[in-house]
Amino acid sequence: MILDGKVVAKNVEETVKMRMEEFNKKYSIKPVFKTLMVGNDPASEIYARSKIKNMRKFGIDAEIIQMDSSISTEDLISKIDELNVDKNVHSIMVEMPLPKHIDRERVIRKIDPVKDTDGQNPFNLGLLLSGDESHVPSTPMAVIKMLEYYKIELKGTDVCIINRTQVVGKPLAMLFLNRDSTVTVCHSKTKDLNEKTLKSDIIVVAVGKPKFLIDNMVRENSTVIDVGINSIDNKIVGDADFESISKKASISPVPGGVGAVTTMLITLQVIENAFREIQ
Q1: pLDDT in tens, 223-256
Q2: d(CA 178, CA 154)
Q3: pTM as predicted
Q4: Domains and their CATH numbers in the chain
């Protein structure tokens, strides 16, 4: 089975429309979203513009604030402070990756937890740790939404996540644990990775290496969610060998998989943030 993210994104879109309709009935303003783009990373720019386009389609006032790649951590934090206190701004995001001289952790910690669009502030990650999923990073939640939409059993299943970042692996592990899955988190120092993937009902891969996950690492009738994004000969591909794995397991494609759902969930989070900020 191919797990089509576009179909799941359409499903989330219905919730976006409903919540936007409720917002419009209650308030005479638009939800306002600002994303900070430092430098000109081509992939980040494409992704940021895609988010902005999607939000504007639903009536959100969305804008990219372009900042020079030489900006200091302090000046970037100053801009975030300015947006934090601006009552007309409801949702803030910082596009990744940041230039190497910027202190990413200091920047993320400065975003007001209520305005934090992608749930990366430590306060919001702490809420997730305690079981509160009101402010969850969008990519991990997109993985869960896809599995739930296709009615793939999570309770009691063995899950292998090949990623340990706080953007994907760590929050995703908590989301699976909240649903009674048994989770193994793997990374570059993991020994006998094949042994762990072959024992798993669900594999989530996000390592940034094309064809990292191949068919002999995946057991029959399991499920693979590919979160990787790589460019080969101007073509976007994931981390899994889609052609071979799709013959023996359910798999999400790249493009058209997790990314489509993530974009829609970010849009939904902006609306939810606006409700919270105004209230």
Answers
A1: 999 999 888 888 889 999 999 999 999 999 999 9
A2: 10
A3: 0.94
A4: 28-115 (3.40.50.10860), 138-259 (3.40.50.720)
